Amino acid sequence: MKITTSEIEYVAHLARLSFDPSEIESFTRQLNDILVYVSKLEELDTSRVKPTTHALQLTNALRKDEVRPSLPVEKILSNAPEREEGRFVVPKII
Q1: pLDDT (average), residues 37-45
Q2: Are 72 and 83 in contact (CB under 8 A)?
Q3: What is the tally of structural domains in the chain?
Q4: What is the pLDDT at residue 60?
Q5: Half-sphere exposure in the Cβ direction for 47 (13 Å, CA)
């Protein structure tokens, strides 16, 4: 056994969780199975495996940051319901 019921009870106490004895036995079995599987994975030789942060190689899909001319103010404000001195007019919030 990689983990004991007393360790499960201790962690449950730290997390302020209460479980009945059958749940604790179930958690003990499940966590033990997980830990046994992880210990099997630790036996693998991963010395030649390059560490990765993503499963797929990602590249930046953003466009280059280039200075370009903006849209004309008249065109931007053409659909505004209300405008004043080249700005949108919105209702007061406060």
Answers
A1: 91
A2: no
A3: 1
A4: 78
A5: 2
Whether 17 is in a domain gets the answer yes
Do 28 and 8 contact (CB within 8 A), yes or no?
A: yes
Q: Is the pLDDT of residue 46 over 90?
A: no
pLDDT score, position 13: 96
- Residue 32 inside a domain? The answer is yes
Write out the H or E segment, with its range, that includes residue 88.
strand 87-88
Torsion over CA: 60, 65, 66, 71 (sign)? positive
**Residue tagged 């599987």 (tokens):** 37
**Whole domain around residue 21: which residue ranges?**
5-42
More confident residue, 34 or 61: 34
pLDDT given for residue 69 in this prediction: 93
Report which secondary-structure segment, H or E, holds 31: helix 21-42
